[in-house]
C-alpha cells in the first residue's frame, strides 16, 4: 500500500519586493505563502527516524531566504521559484504553492496565484 506524507506550510507571512509599478519596486510588500508537499510515507519514515523524513524546517528556511532577499516583477516568477524550492528533494512526488498578494487590487482582499508539480503526468489535484 502506497501512502503519502503530506506537509502543509500554512500562511507563511513574508515581505518582499513584488510588482513592476514604481512604488512596488521601492517598497517591500506583504505576501502569504501556502504550500503542500507530498512524499512517500514508507515504513522508515514512520519509524521516528529523522533521517528518513523530509525536513520541512529546511524547506521553510530556504523559502524565507529566497523571498526576503529577492526582487520579483511577477507573482508567477515568485510562485515558480517557491515551488522549485518545495520540489528540490528527490522524494517529492507532488507539490502545490499558492502565494497571495494582499491589497493588490482596490476592492479585493488579495490576488493569488497557484502552481503545482507532479511526478505523475496524469495527476492534476
TrEMBL record:
Family according to the record: Belongs to the DHNA family.
Native organism: Photobacterium gaetbulicola
InterPro entries attached to this UniProt entry: Dihydroneopterin_aldolase, FolB_dom, GTP-CH-I_C/QueF
Catalysed reactions listed for this entry: 7,8-dihydroneopterin 3'-triphosphate = 7,8-dihydromonapterin 3'-triphosphate
Keyword Isomerase in record: yes
Enzyme Commission number(s): 5.1.99.7
GO molecular function, one term: dihydroneopterin triphosphate 2'-epimerase activity
Pfam families: FolB
GO aspect biological process, one term: folic acid-containing compound metabolic process
Source taxonomy: Bacteria, Pseudomonadati, Pseudomonadota, Gammaproteobacteria, Vibrionales
Protein known as: Dihydroneopterin triphosphate 2'-epimerase
GO CC, alphabetical: cytosol
Keyword ATP-binding carried by entry: no
Sequence ranges assigned to domain Dihydroneopterin aldolase/epimerase in this UniProt record: 7-117
Gene3D superfamilies per the UniProt record, alphabetical: 3.30.1130.10
Keywords, in A-Z order: Isomerase
